[in-house]
User: What shape does this take?
Amino acid sequence: MSAIQTVPLSSKKLTNKDYESDQEVRWCPGCGDYAILRQTQKVLAELDIPREKHVFVSGIGCSSRFPYYMNTYGFHTIHGRAPAFATGIKCVQPDLTVWIATGDGDALSIGGNHLIHALRRNVDVKILMFNNRIYGLTKGQYSPTSESGKHTASTPMGSPDHPLNPLALALGVEATFVARSLDRDLQHLGQTLHHSAKHKGSAFVEILQNCNVFNDGEWEKFTDKATKPMTTLALEDGKPMLYGPNKDKGLRVKGFKLEAVDLAKGEAKLEDIIVADSTDLALAEMLARISGKDSLPLPIGVLYRTSRTCYENDVVAQVQKARQDKPPKGDPLDGILRAGETWVVA
Amino acid sequence: MSAIQTVPLSSKKLTNKDYESDQEVRWCPGCGDYAILRQTQKVLAELDIPREKHVFVSGIGCSSRFPYYMNTYGFHTIHGRAPAFATGIKCVQPDLTVWIATGDGDALSIGGNHLIHALRRNVDVKILMFNNRIYGLTKGQYSPTSESGKHTASTPMGSPDHPLNPLALALGVEATFVARSLDRDLQHLGQTLHHSAKHKGSAFVEILQNCNVFNDGEWEKFTDKATKPMTTLALEDGKPMLYGPNKDKGLRVKGFKLEAVDLAKGEAKLEDIIVADSTDLALAEMLARISGKDSLPLPIGVLYRTSRTCYENDVVAQVQKARQDKPPKGDPLDGILRAGETWVVA
Amino acid sequence: MSSASVLAQPTKKPVGQRTDVVIYFAGDSGDGIQAIGGQFGHTCVRMGNDIVTFPDFPAEIRAPAGTKAGVSGYQLQFGNHEVLTPGDGYDALIALNPAALQARVKGLKDNGLLIVNTDKFGELDLKKAQCKTNPLEDSSLDRYQMFKVELTRLTRAAVFESPLPAPLSNREGDRCQNFFALGMVCWLFGRSLDPTLQYIDAKFGKRAEIAEANKRALKAGWVYCENTDAYVSSFEVTAAKMAPGLYRHITGNQATALGLVAAGQKAGLPIFFASYPITPASDILHQLSRYKNLNVMTAQAEDEIAAACMAIGGSYAGALGCTATSGPGLDLKQEAISLAVSTEMPVVIVVVQRGGPSTGLPTKTEQADLLAAIFGRHGECPLPVIAASTPSDCYMATYEASRIAIKYRTPVIFLSDGYLANGAEPWLIPAAKDLPPINAKQLVEVNGVKPFQRDTETQARQWVRIGTPGLEHRVGGLEKDIGSGNISYDPDNHENMTHLRKAKVDGIVREIPPTVIAGPTSGDLLILGWGSTYGAIKSAADLARAAGKSVAQVHLRYLNPLPPDLGDILKRYKKVLIPEMNLGQLSLIVRAKYVIPAQPLNKIKGQPFTITEITNAIDTLLT
Amino acid sequence: MSSASVLAQPTKKPVGQRTDVVIYFAGDSGDGIQAIGGQFGHTCVRMGNDIVTFPDFPAEIRAPAGTKAGVSGYQLQFGNHEVLTPGDGYDALIALNPAALQARVKGLKDNGLLIVNTDKFGELDLKKAQCKTNPLEDSSLDRYQMFKVELTRLTRAAVFESPLPAPLSNREGDRCQNFFALGMVCWLFGRSLDPTLQYIDAKFGKRAEIAEANKRALKAGWVYCENTDAYVSSFEVTAAKMAPGLYRHITGNQATALGLVAAGQKAGLPIFFASYPITPASDILHQLSRYKNLNVMTAQAEDEIAAACMAIGGSYAGALGCTATSGPGLDLKQEAISLAVSTEMPVVIVVVQRGGPSTGLPTKTEQADLLAAIFGRHGECPLPVIAASTPSDCYMATYEASRIAIKYRTPVIFLSDGYLANGAEPWLIPAAKDLPPINAKQLVEVNGVKPFQRDTETQARQWVRIGTPGLEHRVGGLEKDIGSGNISYDPDNHENMTHLRKAKVDGIVREIPPTVIAGPTSGDLLILGWGSTYGAIKSAADLARAAGKSVAQVHLRYLNPLPPDLGDILKRYKKVLIPEMNLGQLSLIVRAKYVIPAQPLNKIKGQPFTITEITNAIDTLLT
Ligand SMILES: Cc1ncc(C[n+]2csc(CCOP(=O)(O)OP(=O)(O)O)c2C)c(N)n1
Ligand SMILES: Cc1ncc(C[n+]2csc(CCOP(=O)(O)OP(=O)(O)O)c2C)c(N)n1
Ligand code: SF4
Ligand code: SF4
Ligand SMILES: [Mg+2]
Ligand SMILES: [Mg+2]
Assistant: This one.
């Protein structure tokens, strides 16, 4: 174990309020970030973790202002690098619960490399990526998740980029926990955050978030009460993948492809419907490819989870092992200064 | 079309020799890079592209010395950034054939972000990633593809990182061409390079390469004549995935998993064996997950290909369209200087 | 579209005369302050005044309503003479809420006009603004001419006076308050409403009810002043004597974008501009992406490093590669710029400086990236650095940066700043034909010239058009043999190449015209400046000379290399004062190079110098 | 393991005496030159000499055999007095092939001893080395004492003289040539074979046949000289008078690693070292990853940016965060370092300078990152910069950098260079107890102290142990209110914070002991230096004083801030000379700060200064 330790107070039960910092929240009125903030405060209050053990790390962006509003430890760093800071923090104090609040630009554009390395290393951090498919803070340029052809401040003739699929990327680098939720589905968001907090290892959570100033309505068809039942599919392990207002539509496999079927119309039977299983990587990859643009409903919830040693555990374990195997004798510093070949001049 | 044009010479048929530069090749004797160099020279001589239309761009590393040895245009840039340079080059001269020579460290460690963005944008570059699972040039530290637990100069107690799977990463970001080949299988390498050159769009080719100084024998079981038939599977579109010295072993799907079966032992029939289809993404993802560590053979060849607009095409097309739609009148510069609201002071 | 100048709105009240006026509009981020500020400036210009503007807004997209942090401001000076700064104190402050009042009233001159919206001084409003007492009721504002207006109520009354072309919510109606305020200000300073009426039509044309509501509010504000009994009087500022010709408005970022386009056109090269958004530089990307019809390619890269590398790749392939960023992005680009130095690629790097260090004050101005621009790369890695002095000057400065980059085959850093970038001024539109030529000769055929051969005058190496048959060669960041360009580890060669790189940049002095001295060519004090401090320094120096003091001014365009005659000039004055919005960066270079004890005058508040601050420094030094 | 000193191998031939000798081993990259160079140095040390070494190898892992580009060299001076540089000219050159001869013979003194392997002068060898004629046959080498040896043949004969414990291929046998050469050199300079015999056993112990072959070659080389009729004579260098105590060898990179470990131990903090490999800094990571038992965590990051950020994260979490890199990596880390300045995180950034710009000369030394270290970040972003003067001095310099980082809660840059990093010297091992204490107090409980409260003396803010209940707070890179640490856009606050950051760093002068002047405390000439030029400057200054000249020397550890007494000292000399392996970076700062016309002496060849070069500059200045 690292030498850095703090003494936890006996933690009395806390409420959302206890997680609100004294700083004014400075997002645009109506921004989806508010809901995410409130849910996060709520989930933290429900967790069995003392408040002082939470650290929120962020990069730069509207979303990255998040730490200021959480009455926990917080580090608002530089654009795109939050995963690297978080890795340092985790190695030195592995018992902290480290959260990263990041945007689609922060995480996937300038920060893409740090993100994929944190995920493959399985650093035990919870990454909440607020995906509004736009750069909010810099006033409306397209982001790596913006659809191609998008007209923005920097692309008056349409974006020439093919978008990144955040979940496919996370799976591609073998993230151990991959999920998606929505700013406007508070309950689902709360649950998903809860699952991510409980996961030991990197948890990647894409949160579809509305930027009502620069990209209003981007996710409306998935969040609007009227269309949501048909456009989204809430995954629940062990349950068949059903959706629709009457839960009578479902997903079936055909070859290596997923297919939407209508049970009511007799297109398939319940047994044909795939049962959600977040431990199945190949299935997760197929689900991750659903874009919500065609007839298939967009999966929300936990797409994939597995378990693997966390990076910081290995880092710390090596120190422990070295200290056991080669316990420093006498003044340890003198020991290493004098190690190796030495000679005496009289 | 961009304004930058060059006049091609009527190209006489060239040979390997014509692609050898006058610079001494400075890799360690026995390094796998030599074979890759020779095959590339050979493939280029066979292509129907004038020599001066080839540009080799590289980052830093042993592998990144590649451009110096090619008698084409070449740009040895900085560590990890070759894809960004190549993107600039392609936008300005889209008719060049741009190659990137890179290492596992250059491409996936410091350069991971540029790689994934070039791939998703589908910039028409051919990325040859020499994967020796080590940092050669800096003398033997572990790389992002090194297996975890690996003992290297920087990890005397073993690497704490879970490795990246380059092909799964490329698929995760929707690369349009994903392949693998070996430094020691000259014919296969030549073919694969040929396919990549013919692909319009980003081609990502992982080449398993031996660094005989710092990581000797890393791929031996896949390259050694004795073991190769059992450990590798050469993909050929339309052909069943058979392998083994007598081509009597094959791959079959079970659920969402691949399974090795022995036809000779009657474990399956030929019809059960999957037929290679490089247009099937889900299949490609499953194949990409084969690590070669368990009983399944490592797939080599083209795992996946699809077609999508190239980034630079869009960039150039927008310029063309703007010039058509808003053709500058008179002195075009005066035109835009005077555009918008103006007034006269008498 | 070109439009004639407009006349003042006729008023029935008496009108005073002024030579210049400074106005400050302040309100919430959501109140439309930038819109009416810009519109007022535009109106002044159409009426023949010279103006300087200074938008000043928070770093948040929309900070919490009603708080001081959320205040958006727009300062503007207009006059009947050359106007050089947004002005020191304001003659009038329009404060749409208590927070705006609290945050900005410090700048209002004694006896200045203070317009406040009394409808926004409820208890909650005061609390959000952290007012302990109501400033309208305590005597804290006694030294101003207060003009209290029930802006919200009056606006609503005007907007909903008669049926609109389509229904509008109360909230939408309230959004017209800014135009009511603008209407008032137009009356007060005898400004025409026409340009604003045109603007409203153009902007809201698609929703006639909104256009109509705003027009009603604007006119109502004007009429309110014309009819009100409140003791305020109208002032007029006559037109300035401006050089005749065709004018337009221009901000520094627009001018920067146009300068690059101009360079591309004159050089006959495509522009390849790759950038990553960052305040206050993003607009350059936005602007350029609208000039594609002039052979401009734009790319939004994944980060600043990629942007710089793409730009270099673009230059390598024969375009003029450029990129723009601000401080944090400059740090990130340095390694790539270093490669451009080593491989001699013509690239223009625009740096719009903002408050640092780190994220610092992203929407505020500063000049603290000069040393980073000159010295911020590892190794001996010289490159030219050029700066602009006013928003419109960004045009020629960027053009010059491009010209030098191309002629000398070198990356060039052009330093702008937040104040230049967002500030607007009227601009006598220059003619394309008057620009100095740019010779962007590339080697496009085998003619005996080698890729690494140098121009004997400039030391620039060939710019080979890649793709040309017979000129295949390799470049890279390792040290190169001075003759062949092949990799060389030879010690003497490295020293020679290092000197060559330095000599090449130092040789750019031959591009620098004789330094212009405003004022006496020798004397008591020389004020040496660079960048956006120009206006304040000139005003203060002019004032000092008018007061009989021996004060001269030199303002630098070339920061590296410095003008060849500068050393001699500096020695002709007893003292040298260097005002900078940093802790003395040009001072350091001047002291080191000329070994003279130049006096720094530093301000580092995210705000431009006021004339008074410089005047005070002059007075201190001369007594 | 500690080992006693050894005695010279007994010889039957006459032995001359020398006070010091410079030897240069040169051969192909694959010839094992670094091994025998190191082993020879080690032997000298064991015999009581002082030594300085200078390994000099190509950037390629293994450049093409037989070419000049592939030459690997090892220069070494040993003496019976304090040795300060690897020496100017060599007394002896051992050239294992024509390329090595061609590339290095320039450095051999007239009448110097030249040992060549005649078996390697075939036509192909000569061609690879680009020799037009055979240098052994033309008269180009007449001014040297040539000692021609059929090294390959003789080695084979020795190795295969009798059966080996296991069979060995010819190629493997040939690999022993370097030890044959070493055996010869040991005879020539009266060195014991014992340390090398021990080394061979330790290194090849597992393959007895290889160990035996190498031992045979070593001894054969010795015997060959003892018996040969060639006219060469043996020299002896007696032991130097070195301070008594326990010694070890140390390179700069080892010393740097140990300095960090020492700081962690003394501060009672874990070390969290995150780095990305880069020549010549990688070894620091390698070293530290072997000290995990001393509470050292090491991480190989995905790039330099991540490394810096991880280190800062480590400091934020309460460890001493550190990172090491070289020039290109410094560029990349600057934005993160800027955040560490803004948030006041104690981080040590080691920069091992190498030839630039860009990739430059990665395996060669240079001092050209000083200005980038001090000024290379956007905004006003001050931090302390510290340098070491010898390989072993890296220990104390790194320790001091860490101490200051922790005490002042600031990132500190420690500047090493390629010459220090790879150079080795004997080191009188210091005792842990003699190190100055480091007070790494962290706030670990609620006791009325606020997270942003400052120490009144140092201005350092609290180092809050995150995870402590009741101290929850937020930090970030936006400007912070000077009192509360909350985000503040207030203009005056920004100016105050900017001054505070500068004052905090400037205040570190209180840590700087009075400057040590070697030589007269006033006089004709002061040589001011920093970093690895120490030995050459000291030697030249000592020589000049011995020749009756008024020459003093000051060598700086603290580059930012500079020592408080430096200004006064500089003024006491008629002239100031500043030798640097760059184009005058310290010169620039000294000239700017003290407004004195200090003279730069610049060398930028990837090679350290020779004593002669500095002596010449002294002579020029003093006549
Ligand atoms: C190094 C650097 N480059 C660029 C910026 C400017 N910048 C700040 S936030 C941002 C993108 C924000 O987009 P996103 O991460 O999606 O966050 P959002 O505002 O949409 O929540 C950019 C480009 C910066 N602060 N630092
Ligand atoms: C910015 C920067 N960081 C680090 C380095 C040092 N460096 C050079 S090559 C390399 C890694 C090489 O590994 P890889 O890409 O796998 O190439 P290989 O040598 O194995 O072919 C590193 C870390 C550098 N040159 N520049
Ligand atoms: S700009 Fe968009 S993302 Fe940012 S605070 Fe406003 S609504 Fe939210
Ligand atoms: S170090 Fe390895 S990869 Fe590099 S040249 Fe040598 S064998 Fe090849
Ligand atoms: Mg976003
Ligand atoms: Mg490698």
In short: The interface with chain B takes residues 109-113, 116-117, 120-122, 144, 157-158, 160-165, 168-174, 256-257, 280-283, 285-286, 289, 308-309, 311, 314-315, 318, 321-322 of chain A (CB under 8 Å). The pocket of magnesium ion (ligand 5) is lined by residues A 61, 103-105, 132, 134-136, 143 (CB under 6 Å).
